[in-house]
Amino acid sequence: MKKILYLCSFLLTFSSCINTETKVKTASESMPSKAEFAIIIHGGAGTILKKNMTLEKETAYKTKLGEAIRVGYTILKNGGSSLDAVQKTINLLEDSPLFNAGKGAVFTNAGTNEHDTSIMDGKTLNAGASAGTTTVKNPINLARAVMENSPHVMLSGKGAETFAEEQGLQIVDPSYFYTESRFNSLQRIKEKESAKQKLDTKAAFYDPDIKDSKFGTVGCAALDKNGNLAAGTSTGGMTNKRWGRIGDSPIIGAGTYANNATCAVSSTGWGEYFIRAMVAHDISALMDYKGLTLKEAAQEVIQKKLSELGGDGGIIAVDKNGTMVAEFNTAGMYRATMNDKGELEVKIYKE
Ligand code: ASP
């Protein structure tokens, strides 16, 4: 009898040990570690293949991505806001001819460069955007000014330019945005269009042999030390766009979204599909309403919803814990991350 009692008490102690260990493990697993701050950027997704890339070009892209993200990283490390980090990081990418934003913007069918942009503050859900501007050197600065100094969320065209001037933003002659490589891309698309004798502009825009297969839009998402999330996006849109076409980039919920309760997202890809799929907000909503992780939500929206519609592109995002995700259904996406330990990762192709 004594032996049986000993055995029982041993078994009880042993099983409670196992339980404690299991409980501790479960608790730590369900509680993701929180980073102090984090920053992620993209410079566009698309048919970016290693076999088509020279080492020189690859280095140029990686260097500029690294340089840009360090600007935001330093702001965050010094206790600055995620909004400042997003804006200033995007400024560097806008000033580079490598990306389809600011200086490197693509050409419209009419031979102009028309910029779209937006920014969102995850703390207040305030947002600012502008579309179709041709004279504002750094469009993301205009988006921020719209958010902070106007009663509106989105301005367009001439009115947006007048507002930018009133705000003292840097205004340039439209010729500042001319780059030979973007101009040549427009000519190539136009030649292909006429070779196919496509009179139907709608069919031409959606023709995979004609359309631009690289999206060079830039975007940034960041979490700061105060737990505030922000995201921003800046673009020249799509080559050969017509009639004042506006893509997803300036549309809050499609190209950009940020909410402290969930995540901050910036998109790049075929804007028509990103608008129809409401990509950026959908990712936040899946986290909010369904409790999905950022990775699960991004996969659901990019690999299922967007892909099934026929759209291509991707997103970069960071959640309230500082988890960073890059999700795309194209061959590559220019992207970089920096965590609170100062570890930098720059990538172009699929892993
Ligand atoms: N999403 C942009 C647009 O459709 C293009 C891009 O990402 O490069 O205007």
- Beta strands, count: 12
CATH-assigned homologous superfamily: (Glycosyl)asparaginase
What are the segments in which pLDDT stays under 50 over at least 5 consecutive residues? 10-29
CATH architecture: 4-Layer Sandwich
Question: How helical, in percent, are the residues?
Answer: 40-55%
N-end to C-end Cα span: 63 Å
Mean pLDDT: 90
Quickly list its features.
four-stranded antiparallel β-sheet, alpha+beta, Glutamine Phosphoribosylpyrophosphate, subunit 1, domain 1, binds aspartic acid, 12 strands, 351 residues, 10 helices
Could you describe the 3D structure shown?
- Residues 10-29 have low confidence and may be disordered.
- It contains 10 helices and 12 strands.
- A hairpin with a 5-residue loop joins β5 (218-223) and β6.
- The chain has a single domain, classed as 4-Layer Sandwich (Glutamine Phosphoribosylpyrophosphate, subunit 1, domain 1).
- It has helices at 2-30, 55-77, 82-94, 139-149, 157-166, 180-195, 201-206, 271-277, 279-290, 294-309; strands spanning 38-46, 115-121, 127-133, 154-156, 218-223, 229-235, 256-258, 263-269, 313-319, 324-328, 332-339, 344-349.
- Strands 4-3-2-6-5-1-11-12 form an 8-stranded mixed sheet.
- It is α+β, with helices and mostly antiparallel strands and 351 residues long.
- Bound molecules: aspartic acid.
- Aspartic acid binds next to β8 and α8.
Secondary structure blueprint with pairings:
Blueprint: H1 2-30, E1 38-46, H2 55-77, H3 82-94, E2 115-121, E3 127-133, H4 139-149, E4 154-156, H5 157-166, H6 180-195, H7 201-206, E5 218-223, E6 229-235, E7 256-258, E8 263-269, H8 271-277, H9 279-290, H10 294-309, E9 313-319, E10 324-328, E11 332-339, E12 344-349
Parallel strand pairs: 3-4
Antiparallel strand pairs: 1-5, 1-11, 2-3, 2-6, 5-6, 7-8, 8-9, 9-10, 11-12
The chain binds aspartic acid.
